[in-house]
Amino acid sequence: ASSMCGAFPPKFKGSIFLYEFDRRCWGGAYWFQNTRLQYWPLLRSGDSEYLPGLFTMYWRALDYAKERVRNVYGHGGAMFIETMYFWGAGRPRDVTAGQGVTNRYIRAHFSGILELLMMMLEYLRHQPGDAQVQGMLFDIAEPAVDFFFEHFPRVGGKLFLAGSQALETWWDADDPADQIAGLR
């Protein structure tokens, strides 16, 4: 709880308890795949009051995410990149101006925004009266879904997630299960 009540969500790699030398050199960005792991258990433990800080950080970066999609992909919607600073920008070694995400490990990793939405839905199941989180959910959900339907083609009347990615390990995956589950 020491680091969960600040203006920003705690970093996944030790937060305020991180010793001075970061031997992994992961930098200041939030890595959603790692950050999420400290939040999911809070729903079960009854500590859900710590989740809105995470939601707020992504909600505040939404306009940046929309603009990046428009500039890089040339269509509407929003997508939070895997390694994102709290204001929405990506790490310089992961993103190249005009080209978007160039790091192959996260280039087409689009499931983070869907899992964030799932976390919000689960939070609201435990805290149904939280109008602020409900508003953030609606603000993020529409452009998130728009991204998928504008970014990927339809084949045989169905959305085909061609050349996408399953987590950060399987590059160039078609119809990865994590994204299909998130969209459903």
Mean pLDDT: 87
SS-based structural class?
alpha+beta
> How much beta, percentage-wise?
5-15%
Strand numbers in spatial order across the main sheet: 1-2
Distance between the termini: 33 Å
Low-pLDDT parts are: none
Describe this structure in words.
By secondary structure, the protein is of the alpha+beta class. 41% of the residues lie in helices and 10% in strands. It has helices spanning 32-35, 40-45, 51-60, 62-73, 111-126, 131-151, 177-183; strands spanning 30-31, 83-84, 95-96, 100-101, 154-155, 158-159, 164-166, 170-173. Strands 1-2 form a two-stranded antiparallel sheet. It is globular and about 45 Å long. The termini are far apart.
Based on the model shown, name its key terms.
two-stranded antiparallel ribbon, alpha+beta, 41% helix, 184 residues, single chain
Topology of this protein?
Elements: E1 30-31, H1 32-35, H2 40-45, H3 51-60, H4 62-73, E2 83-84, E3 95-96, E4 100-101, H5 111-126, H6 131-151, E5 154-155, E6 158-159, E7 164-166, E8 170-173, H7 177-183
Antiparallel strand pairs: 1-2, 3-4, 5-6, 7-8
Helix pairs in contact: 3-6, 4-6, 5-6, 5-7
Short description:
This protein has 184 residues and is of the alpha+beta class. Helix content is 41%, strand content 10%. Strands 1-2 form a two-stranded antiparallel ribbon. A two-stranded antiparallel sheet has the order 3-4.
